[in-house]
Amino acid sequence: MKRRARYRKDTSPSLPLHLTQRGVIVIGIALLVLSILVTAAFTAARSSAQTALEQAIAKNSAASQTTATAPLTGAASSSSTTDSGTESPAASASEHAEGGPDSTFDASQVHASADPLLVLVRKDLPLEPKEFKPQNLVSLAPGKTLVKEAADHFQELLNAAAQAGHSLRIESGYRSYNAQANLFTRYSNKYGAAYAEKISARPGTSEHQTGLAADIGYSNGQCSLHRCFGEMPGGQWVADHAAEFGFIVRYPQDKVAVTGYNFEPWHLRYIGVENARTYVESGKGSLEEFLNTL
């Protein structure tokens, strides 16, 4: 006798159709709420960032207005311009005085050196000719150039500083006669010639025109062209090691009466590696006094 096949009802669990639809609706609502919350959080964060940015802009604007009412005094370096004539940053009047204190040193008695790397340029010793322009300028950064030998050694100095943990950069280098003349004229027209003498060098009397002088500072701008650079680890490293690369701190803190310039720990002058070694050994501490030992 044949057996009839029995139908076995599927007993696997399943949700009723109306429950499945309800679940989809609930999930959709949950996603919508989450989207609204995320959008609200993003909007709030963006608004907060915008407010902070506006406050920063307002603060910088106020600082700029304050600077404009109180003219900055630029030292032999800080009141500088690039080849394009753009002014470099400058520090406060108390820290910079291109006119600076009067030098009691008789520069006319300095022994002139035949070595072009040892040319002495001061307020009372202009370049000859005054319109002098160095040859073979090499760029270290946009608008920042030095004579090739000085540029090569300055780059070596930067590399060594980086290895020692100090991220430094060139702040300003060669400045042309015309750029300096334009700067001095602007200051004279705005503040009068007497005050211009204190905040800017007359054309032909700036070391930067030689292509051998460079201002150095932190890559992040900290203490840029301020005396506090000399108190920072990077500034102290420069003071201790610059001579190894042929540079000297041209305006030392204890030689103001000789140089006629206030302390500028950022202003370096290239005189050559061998000359710099001899300079350190002489213990003179100023280019003027060192030249009289040769």
UniProtKB/TrEMBL annotation:
InterPro entries given in the database record: DD-CPase-like, VanY-like_core_dom, VanY/YodJ_core_dom, Zn_M74/Hedgehog-like
GO BP field: proteolysis
Top-level taxonomic group: Bacteria
SUPFAM superfamilies referenced in this protein's UniProt entry, alphabetically: Hedgehog/DD-peptidase
UniProt cross-references to Gene3D superfamilies, sorted A to Z: 3.30.1380.10
Listed EC numbers: 3.4.16.4
Keywords carried by this UniProt record: Carboxypeptidase, Hydrolase, Membrane, Protease, Transmembrane, Transmembrane helix
Domain D-alanyl-D-alanine carboxypeptidase-like core: 145-272
Keyword Membrane applies: yes
UniProt feature, compositional bias: Low complexity: 66-94
Alphabetized Pfam families for the sequence: VanY (PF02557)
Any one GO molecular-function label of the UniProt entry: serine-type D-Ala-D-Ala carboxypeptidase activity
Major enzyme class: hydrolase
Spans annotated as Disordered: 62-107
Transmembrane segments: 24-45
Keyword ATP-binding: no
Protein name per UniProt: D-alanyl-D-alanine carboxypeptidase
Lineage: Bacteria, Bacillati, Actinomycetota, Actinomycetes, Micrococcales
